[in-house]
Amino acid sequence: MKKMLAAVFLLSSSGAYAVQEPEAVFNGTCTNCHSGQSWMAPKKGDHVAWKRRLEKGTDVLVKHVTEGFRAMPARGLCMDCTEEDYKAVIAWMSK
Asked: Among 11, 20, 22, 26, which is most exposed with the fewest C-beta within 10 angstroms?
């Protein structure tokens, strides 16, 4: 019982299920490339650039962020972001 309680505590305290505010994540890490500094990174709100990417599906985009893809660094340099955080930031940036 003690081991189970410890496991539940660790999971709940790790933030694994907490979603960070997309704008805060963007301002903290994503803006470094997605505000025009990198010609390969689609800018926030650039519907044409995001349309092609969104057609691949959210799972593919999250995989690219997590593993790195072309000029995109692994985890997008957000080391404390969860998969849910990435999904929320992608949705926020693509609007």
From this structure: 11
